[in-house]
Amino acid sequence: YIREDDLAREPLLIKEGFMKVPEKPGLGIELDEEALQNYLIK
């Protein structure tokens, strides 16, 4: 399942029910392109 796979190169840190919003531009995270290939629909 997509929710079980790590699609981000760095994990999103959740502490006490809160997640720090990434500060990078765009999504704020770098996606793992190889992991995304498993979900490619042609």
Descriptive overview:
- 10% of the residues lie in helices and 10% in strands.
- It has one helix and two strands; from the N terminus they run ββα.
- The protein has a two-stranded antiparallel sheet with strand order 1-2.
- The chain is elongated.
Structural shape: elongated
What is the total number of structural domains? 1
Task: Catalogue the unreliable spans.
Answer: none
Strand content: 5-15%
* Average of pLDDT: 84
**Total helical elements:** 1
Question: What does the largest sheet look like?
Answer: 2 strands, antiparallel
What structural class do helix, strand and pairing data support?
A: little secondary structure
Q: Report the strand count.
A: 2
Termini Cα gap: 18 Å
Give helix % range: under 10%
Strands of the largest sheet, in order across it? 1-2
Order of helices and strands: EEH
Radius of gyration: 12 Å
Key words describing this protein structure:
single chain; elongated; little secondary structure; 42 residues; 10% strand; 10% helix; two-stranded antiparallel ribbon; 2 strands
Q: In short, what is this structure?
A:
The chain has 42 residues and is mostly loops. It has one domain (2-39). The protein has one helix and two strands; from the N terminus they run E-E-H.
Outline the secondary-structure elements.
Elements (H helix, E strand, L loop, with lengths): L13 E2 L2 E2 L13 H4 L6
